[in-house]
Design brief:
The complex is a heterodimer.
Chain A: H1 7-31, H2 47-53, H3 56-89, H4 96-108, H5 111-128, H6 137-162, H7 165-173, H8 178-207, H9 210-215, H10 223-231, H11 237-277
Chain B: H1 3-6, H2 12-39, E1 55-57, E2 63-65, H3 70-77, H4 79-112, H5 115-130, H6 133-144, H7 149-156, H8 170-195, H9 198-206, H10 211-222, H11 224-239, H12 243-248, H13 256-265, H14 270-299
Antiparallel strand pairs in B: 1-2
The chains are: A mainly alpha, B mainly alpha.
Chain lengths: 278, 301
C-alpha cells in the first residue's frame, strides 16, 4: 500500500519505538557520566569504561561466556540441523513424534524449570555414574546446547523444506553419496539459515542467566551472572558501561550480518538469472 | 502416496542423522524431567545432594522403596505457592493485554507503511530482541526508578511534586514484561496483517462501509491468528518470568519463577522445588498445548 499513513498511526509507531529505545539510549548516555551518582550529570567521561577493562571478575566472566557460547552454539547448529533434516526429509520414523515435541518444547518451557531439571540431572548423574565430577564449563555447554538447538531447528526447518530437492537428486544420479550431495548442494543453500541460527543461539547463550545459574558450579560465573549480582543492588555506573558495550556490539553485529546476508541473497538471485539466460 | 510407500522402511544411513539429536534431547531434556518428578517424591535431607533416595538396596539383595507425598501436600497447605501461581497468571494476563493494545496499532502501522520503510521498521522492532534481555530490563531502571528520567521529567514540568514510586511495584513488573516482550507480539501480528488482501477493504469502502466498520468486520477477524499467536508468545514466557520480577518487582510481586528460585537457592529444599516445578509444568500444559495446536495448523499444508 502506498497511501500515506494517518498521523494517528505514525504517532503510535513513534511512541512505541521511543518506548523500546529510550531506556537503552538513556543507559548509554549515563555510561559516559563522570559522576558516580547515577542521578547527577557530572560531565562527560569514559572513566567507567577504563575501570571495566581493569576488572578481572568481569573480564574472566566475559571470556567464559564467550567460550561457552561459541562451543554450545556450534554444537547446537550441527545437532539442530540434523534434527531439522530428519523432520523435513524422513517422513516416518520411530520417535518422530517425540523429536517434534522435544524440538519445540524448549521454546515454551520456562527457563527456570529447564534449569532446575538440568541441575537435578547433573547431580543425579554424578551420584549414579560418578560423572560430571563438578559443575562448570562442560555442564554449562551441555545445558546451552539443549536450549539453543531448538532455535536452530526452528530457523533451519522452513529453509530446508523450501530447498530444491531435485538438485540433490541430480548430484546423487551423478554418483555422489547422499551425505556428499547434502553437504555440497543443500548445505550452501541453507547456509543463511545456519548463520542466523548460529547468531540467534549465540545471543541467547550469551544472555542466559537463569539456566546458567543452576548448572554453573562455584567459581564458574558467566557474564550475565556477574551482571545480575551487581545490578540486583541497584544502578551501578560500570554496569552501564558494560551494558552499552554489549548492546553496541550486538547491534553492529546484527546490522552487519543482515547486510551480508542480503548481499549474498542478491548475488544468488543474480547468478540464477544469469544461469537461466545462459 | 500409497500406504506401502508410507510404510517404507527408514534407510539405515538415515538413523545416523536422526539418532544424535534425538538421543541428546532425550538425555538432556526429557530425562531431566523424570529426575525432577522422581525427586519430588523424596525427603529433604541435610546432605549432598539434599534429598533422600527412593530406592535403597541392602547388601543382602533386599530393597526398599520409600517415597512421600508430603511435598505435594505442602504445596496445597502453604498458600504461598497457590497465590504466587495465581499472581503469575494475573500478571502475565494483564501484561499480554497491554502488549496487544500497544502492539496491534504498531503492527498495523508497519503493515500499512511503504514497502521500503517496512523493512527498516521491522529491523527496529527486532533489534532490541537481539540485544541482551537482562541488560534491557536493567536499562528500564534508568527510566522508572525514583530518580529516573520519567520522574525527573514529570517533576521538572511541575506535573507532580514528589517522585512516583514505580520501581519495586507490580506496575514496574507490567512495564518490564511489556517492554521485553513487545516484539513477540508485533511480529506475528505484522505477519498476518501484511498478508491481508487490500482489495477486501477497497470493496467494503466502495459499498459505503465506514473505515471503522471495515476494520471490525474484515481486518480484525482476519488478523485473529496473529492475535492468538502473539498473545501466547507473550503469555507463556511471562508466567515463568524470573528476571523481571526479581529486578523490578517489589517483595509482594511473588511470581512463581521467583518462588522456585528462592526454594532452591535460599531454602535449599530441592524436593519441594521439584514438586513446585512438576505442578507448574502440569498447569502450563494447557497454554502450551494451545500454542502447539495453532502452530501445527499454521504449518499444515
Amino acid at each position: 500500500m502506498t497511501a500515506r499513513l494517518p498521523w494517528g498511526l505514525v504517532m503510535v509507531l513513534a511512541l512505541g519505538l521511543a518506548f523500546l529505545y529510550l531506556p537503552i539510549l538513556v543507559l548509554i548516555a549515563y555510561s559516559f557520566n563522570a559522576s558516580a551518582l547515577v542521578t547527577v550529570w557530572g560531565g562527560f567521561s569514559a572513566v567507567w569504561y577504563a575501570r571495566l577493562l581493569h576488572n578481572p571478575q568481569v573480564l574472566s566472566a566475559a571470556l567464559l561466556s564467550l567460550e561457552v557460547g561459541v562451543a554450545a552454539t556450534s554444537c547446537a547448529v550441527v545437532l539442530g540441523t540434523m534434527a531439522a533434516a530428519a523432520l523435513v526429509r524422513v517422513r516416518r520414523f520411530r520417535g518422530r513424534f517425540l523429536l517434534t515435541g522435544m524440538v519445540h518444547a524448549p521454546l515454551v518451557v520456562p527457563e527456570i524449570i529447564t534449569g532446575i531439571t538440568l541441575l537435578l540431572l547433573f547431580v543425579s548423574m554424578s551420584q549414579i555414574l560418578g560423572w560430571p565430577h563438578h559443575r562448570g564449563f562442560l555442564t554449562l555447554v551441555l545445558a546451552h546446547i539443549s536450549f539453543c538447538m531448538a532455535y536452530v531447528t526452528v530457523t533451519v526447518q522452513p529453509r530446508l523444506a523450501g530447498a530444491d530437492r531435485a538438485l540433490e537428486e541430480a548430484a546423487m544420479d551423478l554418483g555422489a553419496s547422499p551425505l556428499r550431495a547434502f553437504l555440497e548442494i543443500t548445505l550452501p543453500i541453507i547456509s543463511p539459515a545456519l548463520i542466523s541460527g548460529w547468531l540467534l543461539g549465540l545471543t541467547l547463550s550469551l544472555d542466559d542467566l537463569v539456566i546458567s545459574s543452576f548448572v554453573a558450579g562455584p567459581g564458574s560465573s558467566t557474564l550475565p551472572m556477574v551482571i545480575y549480582s551487581k545490578v540486583k543492588l541497584g544502578v551501578s555506573p560500570d554496569m552501564n558501561a558494560l551494558a552499552s558495550l554489549v548492546i553496541l556490539t550486538v547491534s553492529i553485529g546484527v546490522c552487519c550480518a543482515g547486510w551480508l546476508m542480503r548481499r549474498a541473497e542478491v548475488q544468488r538471485a543474480r547468478d540464477r538469472q544469469l544461469a537461466e539466460q545462459g | 502416496m500409497t500406504p506401502d510407500r508410507l510404510a517404507m522402511r527408514v534407510r539405515p544411513g538415515r538413523w545416523l542423522m536422526i539418532l544424535p539429536p534425538l538421543l541428546f534431547l532425550v538425555i538432556f531434556f526429557l530425562i531431566p524431567f523424570c529426575f525432577a518428578f522422581k525427586i519430588s517424591f523424596a525427603d529433604a535431607t541435610i546432605a549432598v545432594p539434599p534429598f533422600s533416595k527412593l530406592l535403597t538396596v541392602a547388601p543382602d539383595g533386599h530393597f526398599a522403596l520409600t517415597f512421600t507425598l508430603d511435598n505435594y501436600r505442602y504445596l496445597i497447605t502453604d498458600d504461598v505457592y497457590l497465590l504466587s501461581y495465581i499472581f503469575s497468571l494475573r500478571t502475565a494476563f494483564v501484561s499480554t493485554i497491554i502488549c496487544l493494545l500497544i502492539g496491534y496499532p504498531m503492527a498495523y502501522a508497519i503493515a500499512r507503511a511503504p514497502r521500503s520503510t517496512q523493512t527498516i521498521l521491522l529491523l527496529l522492532i527486532i533489534l532490541p530482541f537481539w540485544t541482551s534481555f537482562l541488560l534491557r530490563v536493567y536499562a528500564l531502571q534508568g527510566i522508572i526508578s525514583e530518580h529516573g528520567l520519567l520522574n525527573n521529567l514529570l517533576v521538572a514540568l511541575g506535573i507532580i511534586h514528589a517522585p512516583l514510586r514505580i520501581m519495586h511495584t507490580t506496575l514496574a513488573v507490567y512495564i518490564g514484561i511489556v517492554y521485553s516482550y513487545l516484539p513477540f507480539m508485533i511480529l506475528p501480528l505484522y505477519a498476518t496483517l501484511e498478508k491481508l488482501d487490500g482489495t477486501l477493504l477497497e470493496a467494503a469502502a466502495d459499498l459505503g462501509t465506514p473505515p471503522w466498520r471495515a476494520f471490525l468486520d474484515i481486518t480484525l477477524p482476519l488478523s485473529l491468528p496473529g492475535v492468538i499467536a502473539g498473545c501466547l508468545l507473550v503469555f507463556i514466557p511471562a508466567i515463568g518470568e524470573f528476571v523481571i520480577p526479581a529486578l523490578l518487582g517489589g517483595p509482594d510481586s511473588l511470581m512463581i519463577g521467583r518462588v522456585l528460585w528462592d526454594e532452591f537457592f535460599a531454602n535449599h529444599n530441592w524436593p519441594v522445588a521439584s514438586a513446585v516445578a512438576t505442578a507448574f509444568l502440569v498447569l502450563l500444559v494447557g497454554p502450551i498445548a494451545l500454542y502447539q495446536h495453532y502452530q501445527m495448523k499454521d504449518h499444515a499444508p
